[in-house]
Specification:
Blueprint (H helix, E strand, L loop, with lengths): L2 E7 L2 E7 L8 E3 L1 H9 L1 H9 L3
Antiparallel strand pairs: 1-2, 2-3
Length: 52
């Protein structure tokens, strides 16, 4: 299960996702990238569902 946390970088809020409790760094992004992800959710979902 993915762990969701919030962090901060240079005074700006970050959204942080980690694979599990042992994941040191995870995947993080700020509000600008979050907006891009939301706007392109269907394209990202299609990409994730493609075979490797």
């Amino acid at each position: 299960m993915t762990i969701v946390e919030y962090g901060e970088f240079k005074g700006k809020k970050l959204f942080v996702m980690k694979r599990d409790e042992t994941d040191k760094y995870g995947f993080s992004f700020g509000k600008g990238k979050a907006r891009m992800i939301v706007e392109n959710f269907e394209a990202i979902k299609a990409f994730a569902e493609e075979p490797d």
